Amino acid sequence: MPPTRHRSPLTAHTTDAPPAVTDVVIIGGGLFGAACAYWLARAGRRVTVLEAGSLACGASGSGAGLVVPTTPEPFEQATHRLGTRTARLVLRIAEKGFSLLRKASESDGIECLLRDNGHIQLAVGGTQLDRLAAHERALAAEGVRTEWLSPRDLRSSVSTQIAGDVRCGLLLPGGVVDPTLLVLALTRAAMDNGATVHTGTAVIEVRQAAKGVRVMTTRGMVRAEAAVVAVNAWAGHLVPELKQVVTPAQAQVLATDVLPPVFATGMSAAVSPDGEYWQQTRDGRVILGGCRVADGPNGVSALDREPEDAAHSGLLGVLPRLFPALGPIRAMQRRAAPIARTADHLPVVHRADENIWAAGGFNTHGTPLAMALSRALALAVPSGWAPAELAPFALTRPSLQAA
């Protein structure tokens, strides 16, 4: 997405070939892999990160950078699907993940342009107003602080005309980050603690060995005590049991031309059935996403498809539809961001073998959960003991089996 004007926090070159022996291999250079490397390296483990392309080249670097520490689907729906106890636990884990992100940004120098000023969800029309009211009631019952914003109240966060059918907004906890900077900053911090990073290094196979694991790459074999497969939409290629569970899709994303300052927070609305979401970056561009596309016709994988012209045309109409005074919007960049989803909307954290863990299926709501679950997994990898936080995300969870 749009280049930042800030210097990249990752200045050291990645090495050409991975070491023959290490403590933990992280496969994947997106957010979850970078966060795992960050926690493990901080704990004194020798960490090797393997990435087939470049860091943050997948969904982690293509999103709008919204951070909303709630359940991936509205809490009242999550309660119905998962049960109250599990939904409540997922909510608390997401809140913990946001807290970890804030702490890393404030005390550990993780520069990701975090703005911790909330997220506004708009209600367009009466039906959405009713749904948003149900969402607010469910969150309030769990002690989550929200705030109703009338169209007049919205003017403090939206500096332009608002369409007449936008009934209100709901201010939720959260904020925005630069997602690419977040991945690079976590990776830089891991490297400062001894991790090595190897881009352009594809993993062919990861296998349990008599002692630890063996990871075959395009640049040789790596032996390690443990491995974490953190390739999200591609997880099924290395961990077969995830192939039918973590399924690929596309989130269409575009970056507009520079606009006057309009949006003070990250925002979302449901103009289409899939919903749209956006933030305005500090340089004035708006990163706008939505219009998800599943696997295409004739078996063409969503991971291999180009941006959808029709979807991007629809996205270009979202802001003028909601904020008429903006007029026509120009897209300066557009992407089909590869995402991964599961049938019950929760990511999977799976122990594939004694020393092999895998995670994927973060959809478009991954940042808070990725921060918290990577921290929990960093505790599990060296010890073999799985924290209770990982239980709702197990491959065998009832909600996933039912779906």
From TrEMBL:
Q: Which organism is it from?
A: Allokutzneria oryzae
PANTHER family the UniProt entry points to: FAD-DEPENDENT OXIDOREDUCTASE DOMAIN-CONTAINING PROTEIN 1, SARCOSINE DEHYDROGENASE-RELATED
What is this protein called in UniProt?
A: NAD(P)/FAD-dependent oxidoreductase
Instruction: Identify the residues that the record assigns to the FAD dependent oxidoreductase domain, covering every copy.
Output: 23-378
What EC identifiers does the entry list? 1.-.-.-
Q: The organism's lineage?
A: Bacteria, Bacillati, Actinomycetota, Actinomycetes, Pseudonocardiales
A molecular function GO annotation: oxidoreductase activity
Q: Does the keyword Electron transport apply?
A: no
- Membrane spanning residue stretches: 20-41
Keywords per UniProt: Membrane, Oxidoreductase, Transmembrane, Transmembrane helix
Q: Name one Pfam family in it.
A: DAO
Keyword Transmembrane part of the UniProt annotation? yes
